[in-house]
Design brief:
Layout (H helix, E strand, L loop, with lengths): L17 E4 L2 H21 L11 H18 L19 E5 L6 E3 L7 E5 L4 E8 L1 H4 L5 E2 L8 E4 L43
Parallel strand pairs: 2-4
Antiparallel strand pairs: 1-5, 3-7, 4-5, 6-7
């Protein structure tokens, strides 16, 4: 059983973090993608524009978070290399943080909905998601390092449950109008199975 850390603020009753796990094979696949991303980045001479350090491990951790979110939701994992301005899974940008006490980090120029995954593997917690536009609140803007630019740190209590992630039956794309269309047939993605016990 995964130990869950408490949200930074009191969460609403509908707030539910979801524990999920990756199999050894899924961990290996994510780590190989992380290795490929690190190699491609090194060959290009890229440095993290936000000052992060950790190289290969940071890339592996990110890929693991993407893998577990894709597994939990059934959304397609793009597995892209050098795809910095595009979504990671479905239409979502996945932010994987090592500690369960960390909040969701959203950069000021973010465009896509963001999801918070914490852990290092094979067990993770998917805390929830927020549209990037809703994350740009002044009280969440922080600067936690002199060598890093300010970013928005969204508390877990402000995240929406992954139960609330809509998807069109048969595929489709995230749209701003999904909340306004009660005739659409949405499904709750976590019901696809695979939750950690």
């Amino acid at each position: 059983m995964i130990k869950r850390s408490a949200p930074t603020k009191k969460a609403p009753k509908s707030f539910l973090a979801k524990p999920w796990s990756l199999s050894p094979e899924e961990m290996w696949e994510a780590d190989e993608l992380g290795n490929a991303r690190d190699l491609a980045s090194t060959r290009k001479g890229d440095k993290d524009k936000f000052g992060a350090v950790g190289g290969k491990y940071i890339h592996q951790l990110g890929a693991r978070g993407e893998a577990v979110f894709s597994k939990a939701t059934g959304l397609p994992w793009h597995k892209a290399i050098n795809r910095y301005s595009r979504p990671d899974v479905g239409e979502f940008e996945v932010k994987t943080r090592t500690l369960h006490s960390y909040d969701l980090l959203v950069r000021p120029k973010a465009k896509f909905p963001h999801v918070l995954v914490t852990g290092t593997g094979p067990s993770f917690i998917i805390w929830g998601w927020i549209d990037a536009r809703d994350a740009f609140r002044q009280e969440w803007l922080k600067n936690y390092g002199e060598d890093r630019p300010p970013a928005y740190f969204v508390p877990k209590s402000a995240l929406l449950s992954i139960d609330d992630i809509p998807t069109r039956l048969g595929g489709g794309h995230w749209t701003d109008s999904w909340l306004d269309d009660p005739e659409e047939k949405w499904r709750l993605l976590y019901d696809r199975g695979g939750a950690a016990q």
